[in-house]
Predict the structure.
Amino acid sequence: MRKYVILGVQGSGKGTQSALLAGDLDLVHISVGDIFRWHVKHHTKLGAQVRRLVAAGELVGDDLVEDVVRERLQQHDWNYGFVIDGFPRNRRQAEFFLESYDIDGVIHLDLPDEEVRRRVLARRLCSRCGMDYNLIAHRPETEGRCDVCGGELVSREDDSPEALARRLQEYHSKIDPVVELFRRKEYVMTIDARADKATVQRTIRTRFNLPPYLPSQEEPVRLSG
């Protein structure tokens, strides 16, 4: 059984790298962002709360994130292990995680803030099916339209320069101490996330002595996240 935590700022490719690992190694990918997006899409009470926070450019509160993760992990459907992204969010949660789960490693995707801004502000989302696009690396065949369903591509509510600046500031103030805590336990492998996704995935697998990544293998389709 393998259990990994993947940490990285918005736009660093956490979701993509987690999905590649999970799909090839039979791990369960637990994405805090995907859980919250499901609630927003299905108009739950939690979804409405998340939508208000996101529209204001704020991060979802740490206590709420912790409750959601605890509930998800208690389902115990991860027979071969899991890779979790979007958690832990602060030092207290990191300490709880270390006490509760015998993790195999922490993948820290390192991305400079200027590259974060370049990537995030180029993101688009299909308003109909939720497919993710990035105008830098994954442009649609028809400008402004989804290749899958033809829906209109729009910017996410929280992808504005002002909202992103607030998120970056909050991210560094909370996540940097988490990385330092894990690093003292010798769990952390810091990976340069500026490279293309295949190079990043190969580096992760080499550093953690995992089976090699074969680019020709069928890759999971990544929706919003």
Summary: The chain is about 45% helix and 15% strand.
